[in-house]
Write a structure and sequence with these properties.
By secondary structure, the protein is α+β, with helices and mostly antiparallel strands. The chain is built from six helices and 18 strands. The strands form six sheets. A five-stranded mixed sheet has the order 14-13-12-17-18. The protein has a four-stranded antiparallel sheet with strand order 5-4-7-8, with no helix packed on it. It has a three-stranded mixed sheet with strand order 6-3-9, with no helix packed on it. A hairpin with a 5-residue loop joins strand 10 and strand 11. The protein is elongated.
């Protein structure tokens, strides 16, 4: 009789399976529970669309190295040499795209529905001043420079951990040797905080190779031969413009500026201050 009742209910409700739990351990007969066994629904599959565009300055010039990110996600891309970008945007949820560049105000673009190619205009921030200095919280401009071992170092490929970028005047000078050796002596402490140290000057790769070997430097030195990266990072000249300046940037794991220190003469302070800034941020 119970079997007949179960079958009749199953057919009436159109269910693949149905059972009246009577006197079982899971459902005592006194409970009168009707257990419906339904097929599990398939999980919703996430979808994305490819958003493309170009970032330009207020004058219409391409902005290579501009950073674009989707708020609330790990997606971060940088524009290529012609200012173009491509980023995958999830559907159907609304997203927010943020375009950033050193010395410019962020541009925030809501993405409630798929868009065609975007043209994003960046404007210089009044707070940044004429020098277009990098501010705390700015995304550091991307770059791709040669190392002493013949490889290239691309900044955007080193996100996910802090970075210390220190610009120094010249290989072999007393202050620069003191600074490099101080970074060397405390390098293990930077490693323990998950940070990578990078030295940058306009010296060529052969000079860097000799300087690094002589002082046993455990971190890479990059060659900014034409000084273009110094301009991007607003590293000023010192001593009445006769010498390249000495500036250290500490970047967080997203590539944002966490700390800046500028001083030509206090070479050792660059190391101690960078270490303190990282320690405070942890």
């Amino acid at each position: 009789m119970n079997s007949l009742l179960n079958t009749t209910l199953s057919l009436a409700l159109g269910l693949p399976s149905l059972a009246l739990a009577q006197g079982t351990a899971a459902h005592p007969a006194s409970s009168g529970v009707l257990a419906l066994h339904l097929p599990a629904s398939a999980p919703a599959q996430s979808q994305t669309y490819r958003l493309t565009g170009r970032v330009i300055s207020a004058k219409g010039d391409a902005q290579p190295g501009a950073t674009l990110r989707l708020k609330g996600s790990s997606q971060i891309v940088t524009t290529d040499a012609t200012g173009n970008f491509a980023i995958d945007v999830p559907l159907p949820a609304a997203s927010t795209l943020v375009a950033s560049y050193a010395g410019c105000d962020d541009v925030v673009i809501p993405l409630a529905a798929p868009k065609g190619a975007l043209t994003i205009h960046l404007r210089a921030s009044l707070a940044a001043g004429l020098a277009q200095n990098l501010r705390i919280g700015d995304f550091a401009p991307d770059f791709d420079l040669p190392t002493v071992d013949g490889k290239n170092f691309k900044l955007s490929e080193h996100r996910g951990h802090p970075l210390v970028l220190y610009f120094y005047p010249k290989d072999g000078s007393p202050g620069c040797t003191k600074e490099a050796c101080s970074f060397r002596d405390q390098y293990k402490e930077f490693e323990a905080m998950g940070a990578e140290v990078i030295g940058i000057s306009s010296d060529n790769e052969a000079s860097h190779r000799a300087f690094s070997a002589k002082n046993g430097l455990p971190f890479p030195l990059l060659s900014d031969a034409d000084g273009q990266l110094r301009k991007k990072y607003a590293v000023p000249r010192a001593a009445l413009g006769l010498l390249p300046g000495r500036v250290t940037y500490v970047l967080d794991d997203e590539g944002r500026v966490l700390y800046v220190f500028r001083s030509l003469n206090k070479a050792a302070n660059h190391v101690n201050n960078a270490k303190a800034a990282l320690s405070d941020a942890l």
